[in-house]
Amino acid sequence: MKKRTTDISNNVDSTRRKFLLNTAPAVGAALAAAGAETKIFAGSDAEIPSIRIPKEIPASLNEAPKPGSFEGQGMTGAEVFAKLCKEEDLAAMFCCPGNYTVINAIAAAGVPAYGGRTEGAMCAAADGFSRVTGEATACSGTEGPGFTHMIMNIAAAAAARTPLLVLASNMQIAGDDREAFIQTAYQQPTTTGMKKFGKRLIAPDRVWEYGAYAFRNMKSGVPGPVHLDFPGEVARARFTDPAKLKDYYTKEKYRCESHPHPAPKEVAKAVELITKAERPILIAGHGVFHGKAWDVLKQVVEKHEMAVVTSGPSRGHFPDDHRLSAAVSPDALMSADLAIFIGQYCMPSPGEYRFNPDIKTIRVHPVPEDLGRNWPLDLGIVADEKIFLEALANNLPNKKRDAWTAELAAARKKYDDLIHGQYDLGLKYSRDTNHLHPAVIGKEVHDFLYKGDIDPKQTVTGLGGWTIGNYTGRWLRANRPGQGIVCAYQYGAIGPDLAMVIGAGAAVQRGVGPQAPYKGAPVLCVTSDAGIAYSMFELETAAKYKIPVINLVYNNNSWGMWPNAVTSARSMHMYVFQENLRYDKMAEGLGARGEYVRTPEELREALKRSYQAAAKDGLSTLINCQALKEFTSAKDYPPGNAMNAEPGCGAFAH
Ligand SMILES: Cc1ncc(C[n+]2csc(CCOP(=O)(O)OP(=O)(O)O)c2C)c(N)n1
After folding, report:
1. Is the CB of 643 inside a 6 Å radius of any atom of ligand 1?
2. What is the pTM of this model?
3. Which of 559, 564, 644 to mutate to test the pocket of ligand 1 (most atoms within 8 A of CB)?
4. What is residue 260's DSSP assignment?
5. 340: closest CA among 387, 307, 373?
6. Which of 610, 568, 612 is nearest to 592 (CA)?
7. Each residue's pLDDT tens digit, 410-460
8. Phi–psi pair at 143, nearest 5 degrees
């Protein structure tokens, strides 16, 4: 029998420090060092055992990969599929148990795998990992209930064009339409409208072929979710001879790396339009991030002095702190006379962007079908984003645009004054009420991450919530590729935020892609009290894998839409919660740290403590920021809640 570990210390901090001193930073090694005797949270009652990481976790994380082989017993269908996932560098898989044969095979093949508490949150975590790296990731759950729990976050990933592999199943084709045993679900119709490609596999010998379909779709053109469901007959089929598999050839043969090049006369036309314009603005969409085109982007706009604003679910592929960035100068947007959309996967309609209705438009996109949708074009070009930017770098002349850059700088100053004015007012409200106004939270986080001792390019942030999302969006910055994720991007889901940032944190912990220079750094999430309900339990997942997340909860005791109930006498109870809930204490119960703050000073100190615990010891913290629901209302606390200009920082629709 296992020895029961009890903790007789009442001093939680000193116990944690002892534990942390024994802990190495890297994932497997850290958890191996932690081992079965690790105490993460010390209860005061000697009879109650401490929360701890069981030895099975580090032991299984440190196991060497063991891919299947055609020798002997042969490979299962799941192992064949896992082999393809590994050869395609599937960056990570997030799952809850279910679809057992498939998840075990993928983990055994050596794909980094994570197990969490809800399938929906695991789907968001996989999305978050992809949003900060551009890599394809997977999520998985059991056929009926696990899969349907993911739906909101599959739809959010579709809106964000995430290369997300949705895997689910367990049941057998033999049980189709019979309600045999439990859980059978018609999966593919359920993801209609939320995927780029999907298939229920029915022929075991086509498992490799459909794996190829999946990665061809995720890695070509505009990415998007792919949904494969794996009945038992496919997952558990056995193959001892690769010749029995249909289309069993390598990725070099089942997809290609050829990308569309713009015609020279199209480049010449673009150069002419850009050179003639007085105030051009380049909208660098998700395709610029996916195409890793950030260096050539900077080269082009510096050479020719264009304004740039990033759009999409990932931010930072052009730095917000660059003098040519229009992300924090919304007043300049209206005077732009030429918009150059590059890699804008999800197009707004005119009026949704704060541009002059007469603005001329060039749009560069890797597939022709979307050109001209929603937004009228003066020039549409089918091209790979990076290849087009390279052509511009070679063909655009050097140009100075002193009037335009001066206007950008003046607009930036005006915006800065505006948000500082909101902060001053928020500070007054905070002092008057002894509750934290959202403008104060935004400014405190900003100063802490970008104005103090921390490298302003280091910390990945993710943002959700309604009132808090709008306020904090004005203060968060993305100064390098993959530094910021917009959790609510386009789909507007409340709640995936923390799970998404934990996924992003896993990518930072492993130093994947643009996260490599910041490997192991803490990540920070700002979410709401309504939002935390959807992801809260994943603090346990963060603790289990030692992914250090600092999670601020804007606790205004309500769904921020409560003003909708004001004129409906029997409604308010549906919009408000119990007041002063202790999300921080719940976090402690899940193996994270908790902080409860009501003043700017308390928040500042909590941020410092939390970052230190995260950076040094891999611990996560939930900072419960106590607010008042009335801060949302312009009548009670002007200016109340308002959405931000798009495109720019704080934009989330496009
Ligand atoms: C899953 C989900 N449910 C409901 C909504 C509709 N909705 C949009 S914003 C909002 C209020 C959210 O309140 P909260 O997240 O607490 O934000 P706060 O204003 O307090 O920052 C609601 C209900 C939504 N977008 N997503």
Report:
1. no
2. 0.94
3. 559
4. P
5. 307
6. 610
7. 999 999 999 999 999 999 999 999 999 999 999 999 999 999 999 999 999
8. -50, -60
